[in-house]
Amino acid sequence: MNARWAYILGGFIIAGIIVSYAMDANRTESVLSFSLRYAVPLILAAMVGIICERSGVINIGIEGQMLMSAFAGFFGAALTGNLIAGAMIGVGTGMIMGAFLAVGSVTWKMDQIIAGTIINILATGLTSFFYAQGYVLPGVMPTVAVPLLKDIPLLGPVLFNNGLYTYAAILIAVILWVLLFKTIWGLRTRSVGEKPSASDTSGINVPRTRFINVTLAGGIAGLAGAYLAIEAAGTFERGFTAGRGFTALAIMIFGAWNPLGAMFAAIFFGLTQGVASQLQSDAVFEIPPQFVNMLPYVLTIVLLAAVSGRVSPPAAVGKPYEKD
Predict the structure, then answer these.
(1) Across the strands, what pairs with 209?
(2) N-term to C-term CA, the chain
(3) Residues near 128 by Cβ (< 8 Å), separated by ≥ 6?
(4) Which residues pair with 161 in a beta bridge?
(5) What CA–CA distances, in Å, run from 130 to 43, 135, 238?
(6) Could you tell me which residues are beta bridge partners of residue 162?
């Protein structure tokens, strides 16, 4: 997207928030807090896509990785009686699913779209078959308030009074930006996604780099799934992720494969959902809930149409590497 229009859009959003806060501070804080919580799994899932595609691997299996991890995380927490154990099980499940994708797309050199589709189908089938009712979590994830910072008007309650998953999502996005653009690992990752043959010539093991990155990215997808089941909803249902993995791919593209850009795009998605939900609850407009639920996907189509042809993916993404 043209930077000028991005600044204009950001300016309108900030101005709208300030005006809304001046009119009703409590309601504005509520909407923004909801928006951030809604954006957490989208931020994490977008980071998965960025790591994979920066490494040269298309991952459309994010949806399946999140779904499987949400299932494993919820039932792991319910059976062990420990929320942290459930989160770790979810992350581990995501890494296993990431390794599965890496084996198919990197080791076996399968078509990467097909490999991701297999993961989605597998996750949908397994979670539906093994799903069982009657399980509950042993408690709720605690909210952690940051001293002093939580007292800042507007931003304090929104940014510094959240659960651990929310802080983790923001930190992961910032850390990933630093790693990608300021470290040797980031340089190597971007090189295998842009010019794998040149990377190989310089001594970088392209298949190993891609395999490790895709597997580790699966762990972040696992964290997103665990958040949905353990903190956001406190339960699990069939089809639980509801297309968030695919939405995250659009957010990744809108953010131009940049972790910070994708994070702000995810928050923007959350903000639109939060505003629509608030308008519906206040009965400002008689909006059927089905249309409110459609909003993120309509917005996805609009944003993809807006950025089409204006951003470019890594040059070697989707291409299995064949050593010369």
Answers:
(1) none
(2) 37
(3) 238
(4) 145
(5) 28, 13, 10
(6) 144
pLDDT in tens, 90-114: 999 999 999 999 999 999 999 999 9
d(CA 141, CA 226): 11
**Are the C-beta atoms of 223 and 87 separated by less than 8 Å?**
yes
- pLDDT averaged over every residue in the chain: 88
Rounded-to-integer distance, Cα 304 and Cα 248, Å: 12
> What is residue 204's DSSP assignment?
-
Using DSSP, state whether 147 is helix, strand or coil.
coil
Contacts of 56 (CB under 8 A, 6+ apart): 192, 193, 196, 206, 210, 314, 316, 317, 318, 319, 321
Report residue 309: phi and psi, to 5°: 85, -5
For the ranges 31-35, 123-127, 263-267, the one whose mean pLDDT is highest: 123-127
List, in order, residues 6 or more apart from 43 with CB less than 8 Å away: 169, 170, 172, 173, 262, 263, 266, 267
pLDDT score of 2 more than 50: no
| 24, burial (CB in 10 Å: exposed 0-12, middle 13-18, buried 19+) | exposed
Which candidate, 117, 138, 120, places its Cα nearest to that of 128? 120
Alpha-carbon distance 13 to 198, whole Å? 43
In the chain, the domains with their CATH numbers are: 35-307 (1.10.3470)
User: For residue range 36-53, what is the model confidence (pLDDT) as tens digits?
Assistant: 999 999 999 999 999 999
Tens of pLDDT, residues 209-226: 999 999 999 999 999 999
Query: Which two tokens mark 21?
Result: 């806060």
Which residue has tokens 């995501």? 94
Query: Could you tell me if 257 and 316 are in contact, meaning their C-beta atoms sit under 8 angstroms apart?
Result: no
